[in-house]
TrEMBL record:
Pfam families: DeoRC (PF00455), HTH_DeoR (PF08220). InterPro entries: Carb_Metab_HTH_regulators, DeoR-like_C, DeoR_HTH, NagB/RpiA_transferase-like, Tscrpt_reg_HTH_DeoR_CS, WH-like_DNA-bd_sf, WH_DNA-bd_sf. Residues 14-69 form the HTH deoR-type domain. The keyword Membrane does not apply. This is DeoR family transcriptional regulator. The keyword Transcription applies. Keywords: DNA-binding, Kinase, Transcription, Transcription regulation, Transferase. GO terms for molecular function: DNA binding; DNA-binding transcription factor activity; kinase activity. PROSITE patterns: HTH_DEOR_1, HTH_DEOR_2.
Length: 270
């Protein structure tokens, strides 16, 4: 199967898989090994090894045939997720800031996620703009600056973290034209393009690709070569990708061939 562990690259794949497992568990609370085997395209033995590692870290609890979530009532999910690759996410946010993508009176959509939250903190100090988001905490960050007009999409508040979900989110985004859209992604495949673990995110991102003049994906290095089960769109659907380190040559080539700008700290245009 694809995505099996092999040496150093296997370690990175394992970290990426485990992140996707935890994100899925935040939303569904119960997962079966068979579901994860199918969605991540790896063997049951590989999934069970990932689950054992995560259980040892206290991140989940194994039950017959699958796993259940372990909740820490003292830690908000966004706070926990922000801890992972914190420095890398800040580097990505700095790159976005230095690219000067914001601007006075621009209409900007920012999707939910810990990486986009770092980006929002930088944009909050930029020129006055008109923001829309489906992430309550991101909207609050932008609003606290007092510089911007901030609008939340419609939608149902997710019970585990401060994110609006459902058809109303896509409907809200679909009624607007954006100068700039910034979202994260679950996985970047060299052949298929961008992938999401959940179909609702893929649908929202397709709408943004059609409605934004500039569409930026922010993704740390663990997303390159990772796996998820919903193909959102091909590489050429976005304007640029901003990451924390130079990707492998095959990814550099595929984005160059697609006409997509690729940026990281130290790249020529940063």
């Amino acid at each position: 199967m694809n995505g099996e562990d092999n040496g150093q690259s296997g370690y990175q794949l394992a970290i990426s898989r485990q992140r996707l497992i935890l994100e899925a568990l935040e939303r569904s609370e119960v997962l079966k090994v068979s579901q994860l085997t199918s969605s991540l395209n790896v063997s049951p033995e590989t999934i069970r090894r990932d689950l054992r590692n995560l259980e040892r870290e206290g991140r989940l609890r194994r039950v017959y045939g699958g796993v259940v979530a372990v909740r820490d009532t003292d830690v908000k999910p966004y706070e926990a997720r922000t801890e992972a690759l914190r420095d890398e996410k800040e580097e990505i946010a700095g790159c976005v800031s230095r690219l000067g993508l914001g601007g006075k009176d621009k209409r900007i959509f920012i999707g939910g996620g810990s990486t986009t939250m770092s980006v929002a903190k930088h944009l909050a100090e930029g020129p006055p703009a008109i923001f829309m988001s489906n992430a309550i905490e991101i909207a609050a960050i932008l609003n606290r600056s007092g510089r911007h007009e901030v609008e939340l999409t419609g939608g149902k508040l997710h019970k585990n973290y401060e994110l609006l979900t459902g058809d109303a989110v896509a409907a809200s985004a679909g009624r607007h034209r954006f100068d700039l859209a910034i979202t994260s992604t679950n996985a970047i495949d060299p052949d298929l393009g961008f992938l999401e673990f959940f179909e609702s995110e893929a649908i929202l991102h397709r709408i943004l690709a059609r409605h934004a003049r500039t569409y930026v994906i922010v993704a740390d290095h663990s997303k390159f070569g990772a796996s998820a089960n919903h193909v959102t769109f091909g590489h050429a659907a976005v304007s640029m990708v901003v990451t924390d380190r130079e990707p492998q040559p095959r990814f550099c080539k595929v984005f160059a061939d697609a006409g997509v700008e690729l940026h990281w700290p130290g790249s020529k245009k940063i």
